[in-house]
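Summary for the steering committee. The consortium agreed at its last meeting that each partner would contribute one worked example illustrating the joint modelling workflow. Our contribution is presented below. We chose a case with several input lines so that the handling of multiple components could be demonstrated. No manual editing was applied between input and output; the record is shown as generated.
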Amino acid sequence: MADVTFTVDGKKLTAPAGTLLIDACKAAGIEVPAFCYYPGLSLQAACRMCVVRLEKVPKLQTACTTTVAEGMVVYTETDEIKQARKATIELLLGNHPLDCPVCDAGGECELQDMTFKYGAGESKYVEIKQHREEQQWSPVVYFDRPRCILCYRCVRVCGEGMDVWALGVENRGVSSVIAPNGGDHLNCEECGMCIDICPVGALTSGTYRYKTRPWEMNHVGTVCTHCGDGCKTTLGVRAVNDGVEIIRGDNRDKSGINGDFLCIKGRYAFDFANNQERLTKPLVRQADGKLASVNWEHAIDFAAQRLKEVRGSRGGKAIGVIGSNRTTNEENYLLQKFARTVLGTNNIDHHRTADYAAFTAALQGRADREASLRDFASAPAILLLGNDPTEQHPALAWQIRTNVRLNRARLYVANHAEIKLRRQAKAAVTIPQIGYASFVEYLSGNDGVFAGNANTSAFRDSVRKEESLLIVFGSEFRGRDIASLVQFGLSLPNVKFACLGDYANSRGAADMGVLPDLLPGYVPVSAPAHFAEEYGSALPTEPGFDMVEMFDAATRGDLSALYVVGSNPVARYGMDASALKNTFLIVQDMFLTETAVLADVIFPSANLYEKAGTATNTYGDLQLVKKAADKAGVRTDFELIVRLAEKMGTHPKNLVPFGKGVRADFGQSRGVQSGEADRHAVWLAANDLEPKLSPFDPFAIFDEIQRLVPAYNVPRLNLLAGNDEHLKSELVQIDTNATRRDLVLPSQDGLYTSGTLGNYSAKLKEVVASHTTMNATETAAD
Amino acid sequence: MATEKTTIFSPELAARFDKLVTLYPVRRSALVPMLLYAQDEVGYISTAVIAEVAERIGIRENDVQSVLSYYSMLRTKPAGKYNVQVCTNISCMVCDGYKILEHCKKRLGIGHKEVTSDGLFSLEEVECIGACCWAPAIQINYDFYDELTPEKMDQILDDYKAGRGKETV
Amino acid sequence: MPRLVSHPDEVKIISRRFGLGATDIGKYIELDGYKAVQAAISKGPEWIISEMKASGLRGRGGAGFPTGMKWSFVPKQSEKAKYVLVNGDESEPGTCKDHLIFLYDPHAVIEGTMIAGIAIGAKMGFIYLRGEYRYLLKIMEKAVADAYAKGFLGKNIFGSGVDFDIVTQTGAGAYEVGEESALMESLEGKRGVPRIKPPFPAVVGLYGGPTVINNVETIASVPHILLMSGEAYAKVGSERNGGTRLFGISGHVERPGVYELPMGYNLKKAIYDVAGGVRGGKKLKAVVPGGSSTPVLTADEIDVGLDFDQMGKAGTMLGSGGIVVLDETVCMVEFALRTIKFYQHESCGWCIPCREGTDWLKKSITRLHEGGAVDKDIDNIRYLAENMLGRTFCPLGDAAAMPTIGFVQKFRKEFEDHLNGRGCPYKHSLEREEALV
Ligand SMILES: Cc1cc2nc3c(=O)[nH]c(=O)nc-3n(C[C@H](O)[C@H](O)[C@H](O)COP(=O)(O)O)c2cc1C
Ligand code: SF4
Ligand code: FES
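What follows is the complete predicted structure of the assembly.
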């Protein structure tokens, strides 16, 4: 809309006509206070804090409902306005319990801040305050009624934002109360958005409440370790005896790709890191067949010697490596470099949950065709094929809902199931579970392969009329099906695509070449080009074994050693445990997983919250991973790979080009954690290496990635500032003709599960258990 | 699952609801009257009433709950067969409305929002019922009685007790 | 059954058919019924609106907005259907005039609704009665059914090619639902919480369509205006206040009742001549002139004309026409308490100043009345009320604040008499038990 010019407190401002005055003021640095106003949610004008004076208007007006107009003259801080706000605060505080010293929101409370600002310091209230007992509404949501100021933010974010509608208002007048849909409990997705959005301490979190004061935590912005959406999260951490523990996850800074949003996993399921079963000492299998803890030096040395032996006796071909969906890009990169240059093998793979290789091949050479997660919040039209984002990609579902709500985006859903996002869809069709490929043909105009009807044909017509469309698809599409989908998409104007994979860094694992036939950036091993120069002539050029072939080879006796990093193929990929009887198995993990129990050597490792680096979400958004927590006794996968290599006789500098240039890590990537810098210093000195510059510096590897994988050569400053950068996908080069085996196996995770990690989250288990008993009692009551 | 609709309401009321939802541009408009009619028949808004009304309109049960708790005539507990509602608002107040309320309390032996043990009467102090010029006024269920005196009040209660009361439904 | 009264000073326009059996459609037709709507159909919207403007009719719901002007704000073209909504939520304490219209002249409401519909191009009207008025709903339902049976409602009314439907319904006990946008919410099956304005109902109202909302009395006046001409109607009243109005005089008067008096009629005369003066020869203490939300007048302030402008000049409001007369025995603190209790009970709870303010006021005045007050209470009460005024989401907050300020201002002495643990000095007050819940 056209710009209008208006005056606020004597300042001339311009903003598009129709902008809300409160937003226009904020953009100009003029803070208008509000409790009920919340950007993106429906307007309430209920709290009356944002009152301002408009010239020629008799009463004070609410800035949250006034739209700017040409020539408007506004005052936001006159005595009259200050008095109005002060009185509103006084009225609110009348019956508000002043338990700030023990309230979770103390120090982060909007009511406190405004009381401070408007100086309602003395209480006129002499009536008896109404006390009510706090209520627990779910394992994660508690409600303290007297603290509630009835701003309705929670009701709106749950209904409008989440499309869950679990909160409502009951009664009227001063008896009005926020009420959960289950009478005395919530039936909901437990996302905790209501807690986050509450301006006071009325809604509190089952994981955080009464644990600490906000100013006693450090706050670290990093990336959620759960699903492929890669939400940015702010972790509240504090020092404990054995390191630094996470006590809160939220999205307070709202700067990330996920905006306001976090789902239950992002908000609460960091607790796996504190699980008692966590491994903190290396374990080595003894002659009696039992695992015993040993010191690090011994464990690493033992594993390295065995790997060296196998390499020496049977060559790299007899060694396999399985990488992780949840380690950093740098670690994945390093792992494949280690496999290829130190172990001398292309036998490397990971649990694939999406066919990124086929996707990249299909898009080859085309600029700017990949959609960022951000794009879903603004695209005029979206075609969703397969998947159930509400369950599997909660942030994507949030973006889509927001876009439909605020921008009236048109959503088209084709799915075999009754997924919830159909409620936002302009059009939806049900197709057979095996019918996705033929449906795409049908969309392309080929009527023969798919039995259409009036509904599908109207759907097709609408989709094909779109002038700018995002096509997002789930793991129902692989290989050639992706190619034909992309081909269909490219026949329409302005189409971007997104391929949905399941874990926090599945995309990174594929991009970083944790694949038997592809180097980082999807460069075929058979034509390694510049990698040959970088990695040296020893680089194997025959494709190696994939995951299945490795286990087959092990069964045959052709795989003498297997190095598994942050992966649980036995439980998650259904691999046969007995195949590894005669294989020397090294596992790096947090827990004694179904795979780890088989190992000869187990290295306790750090998780994504305990390290630094970068991660790539399934949409190709690259983000900085910052170290938030720390656990005594564990090491990062990065460090472990370097140490193994070093013990195998490779100079760390050959693996990690640290100390080059100016990008070296001076500790900033490690945060302020316990003793780690000292540990490094000792090790560096002992190995005659330059102090200060660490061979465990993820940025040294990131330098190399940026150099060798052009798509990752994004501006770094923005990344370091904690913002996401979208990959330059047009630069990825790949052989389009090769046929690959379909090894995609979706994780089958829903809102309350998260692969192996989820098994160790007490909160997730508690929520699942409470939903199960709730359902049981509710059915019984019928 | 049975395809036939089961209902907790009488066939007449069920038919009335079927008609009601068609009168308006949106089904939900029938909600408030429906709740009132259901209450007239069932005696109060039970959870079963909430469930069925929600289903008939096609909204969530907590939406029904949220709406019904807003309106003061809708109740979630049974009242007496005859709900005596005494206005004590300004016009009635100055014309001895409180005397009538006290009289009813004594006569029925119950207080505000209480029910007699035989379930016949309940008592409620209410806001202005729109009979100010004929104060003091009361309603028994939907029927108005005005220009009351304690004597007149006794007569009315006697009539109801004897089954001679008016019954607008 | 409400008693009808009469007085020679009355000018019976709206109440013309009261007591004449006009609930019967035949009788109504005999008494000139459904003539105005036929004239309206043949002469068209522009004529109707110009007659309405000429009549000087101002909304009888309380705010006194000129009706003809309100109708003219409705856009001629609209994608969404337009509606007429008749506000029969009558809940302002002291007000019982719409009660009589429903009871004695239901067809006038129907006819007025139809005319409003024709004027703005609506094909559907809703008549919303407060939930307590079930017996009046029955009367309205029958009247509507009779009108349908005669072909006056439904398809092709009076053979004009125009369709018009009317739906009647009741609320379920909520004063706030009388506020126009809260009424729309209620009619849409929601909580009676008002809407943000703008947009105003004339542009975006019921079901998102342009809507005219008027009080029952306003609507029932419409056929009469068209029959007698706007100009003639205007002449009956005072300057810028056309016609007559139903005034309900209640409280301590000899002949309480609803009287139809010309706009501008003197309040003192209304009390002393029309209603027979203060009951039992007692002294007049105060008058609440237009329903409980209007600021009180003392006995010395009642020589004033009953129209929107003169009452405004006198520092109060004409409001809903409910005049409550208080004699010397009334404790003004108790009266103020009963008033604020009502608003506390009826606040929808949406906005902070009204929700918290009414509750706080109720608690403070209760304490004051019971004798537990502290010195600063009286100033506090006034401070609270003044800080609610003009700051709430809808006018209910003002409706609670204005009379409270008036009571403290004009009867401060009585408030002071309650201070210092002395409690209520007016011994006639009965023991009151529970507060309204
Ligand atoms: C809290 C509140 C309650 C109201 N109650 C009523 C009412 O019961 N009846 C009524 O006609 N108008 C009531 N009004 C006024 C209406 O909002 C609206 O102004 C009126 O119906 C318009 O009709 P009119 O122009 O014919 O007066 C109320 C307003 C407020 C703010
Ligand atoms: S003033 Fe506020 S709380 Fe009061 S009735 Fe209006 S909107 Fe509701
Ligand atoms: S005050 Fe009692 S009916 Fe109005």
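Residues C 59-63, 65, 67, 87, 89-92, 176, 178-180, 213-215, 218, 394-396, 399 surround flavin mononucleotide (ligand 1) (CB under 6 Å). The longest helix of chain C spans residues 35-55.
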